[in-house]
Write a structure and sequence with these properties.
By secondary structure, the chain is an alpha+beta fold. It contains twelve helices and 21 strands. It folds into two domains: 145 residues, FAD/NAD(P)-binding domain (3-Layer(bba) Sandwich); 193 residues, 2-Layer Sandwich (D-Amino Acid Oxidase, Chain A, domain 2), CATH 3.30.9.10.
Length: 396
């Protein structure tokens, strides 16, 4: 019997978990994972807020909801087994105004439908038992939410992949993909690699890598940068775990929140503004090709027109510490500007349609000898083992 062989493109959480699951399903297979950076988890996975999302807000029946709930249980068990730093610490979702209370009840219904346990609507007094400095007229307790060190998680996956006989090749940017003799050849900056089956999980470059493989995706990746502040030692005393605003379903982004990090400290953010470079973590980072591709995409202008007020507010907040602080004060009024210290940033890969609509769910396309992950927004890192399990199961 011919030995199965695989190329996986992308060394973020989804690519690594997929490679791990493929080797579980096909023991002894020849598998090579290609990552263009000098180490894994350098982009979305390593620059997010480190939250384990349990599937609270996602539409019941969606892939996001199903895989988030399954995924958080899988990743929690995985981290416990392999001593990866994590904690199921719970989250508080805050309604700051009376008109937001129906949204809390909607979240309660969604979370219950998605199989979450222990959800509870709280009074202001009940909220302060969990988060003594939180404000608001009501809150939703979400006990199954947690935090994790995603970089350590990915490094553990690398070790397990290599222990199972796979290879993780870094500094290997894919420059070409072609079918040849019934298999795939990947041209990279580290040479050529061949395999009978191809899986691409390229995150911020998902659409471009799919096009290299001959696909014509109906969506385009539009990058949105999110900036964070860290709280000072004094500010950290105001937050125990995770404090989130109640989301407005009219808008595609959540709003700034407060997150305890698995590696220590409290992070505040992120906002969401268009990035003019797909890997642009600074406010002024610019790449001509990336910027041109984004601003000439008709979907972006339709999206901006539909959400003009939100986009304007996000942009103003990105350049104003005062406005950022005011947003945080709706959650914890005692936070002051001097509590906010410079933090990092992340860029999220968001697939968008030409109509200006964000693709909300995971988007995975399958061909005879290839699978392409075109959209894997949050909670993809949390759900990565479940996504990888799904992809491995799709391979004939």
């Amino acid at each position: 019997m011919t030995k199965r062989s695989f190329i996986v493109v992308g060394g973020g959480a989804v690519g690594l978990a997929t490679a791990y699951r493929i080797l579980e399903r096909f023991p002894g297979a020849a598998l090579t994972l290609l990552e263009k950076e000098p180490a894994v988890s350098r982009h979305q996975t390593g620059n997010n807020s480190g939250v384990l999302h349990c599937g609270l807000a996602y539409r019941p029946g969606s892939e996001k909801a199903r895989l988030a709930v399954r995924g958080i249980r899988q990743i929690t068990e995985f981290c416990a087994r392999h001593a990866v730093r994590h904690e199921i610490c719970g989250k508080l979702v805050v309604a700051s105004k009376d008109e937001q209370i129906p949204r809390l009840h909607d979240l309660l219904e969604r979370g219950t439908a998605n199989g979450l346990r222990g959800l509870e609507i709280l009074t202001p007094e009940g909220m302060r038992e969990i988060e003594p400095h939180a404000a608001g007229v009501a809150g939703l307790r979400v006990p199954e939410e947690g935090i994790v060190d995603y970089t350590a998680y990915c490094e553990t996956l690398v070790r397990l992949i290599e222990a199972a006989g796979g290879r993780v090749v870094v500094s290997a940017e894919v420059t070409g993909l072609r079918l040849s003799g019934g298999g795939w050849i990947a041209n990279t900056t580290q040479g050529d690699f061949s395999a009978s089956y191809l899986v691409t999980c390229a995150g911020l470059h998902a659409d471009r890598i799919a096009r290299l493989a001959g696909e014509r995706p109906e969506v385009q990746i539009v990058p949105f940068r999110g900036d964070y502040y860290k709280l000072s030692t004094e500010g950290e005393k105001l937050v125990r775990n995770l404090i989130y605003p109640v989301a407005d379903k009219r808008f595609p982004f959540l709003g700034v929140h407060l997150t305890r990090l698995a590696r220590g400290g409290i992070e505040a953010g992120p906002n969401a503004v268009l990035a003019l470079k797909r890997e642009g973590y600074g406010k002024t980072d610019f790449d001509w090709e990336d910027a041109t591709e984004a601003v000439t995409f008709p979907g972006l202008w339709r999206f901006a027109g539909r959400h003009l007020k939100m986009c304007t507010n996000e942009l103003r907040r990105a350049f104003s510490k005062r406005l950022f602080c005011e947003s945080l004060q709706t959650l914890v009024p005692e936070i002051q500007e001097n509590h906010l210290l410079p933090g990092g940033s992340g860029v999220r890969a968001q697939a968008m349609r030409r109509e200006g609509v964000l693709v909300e769910d995971f988007d995975i396309i399958q061909r005879a000898t290839a699978i392409h992950v075109l959209n894997a927004p949050s909670p993809a890192a949390t759900a990565s083992l479940a996504i990888g399990e799904k992809i491995a199961g799709m391979i004939g």
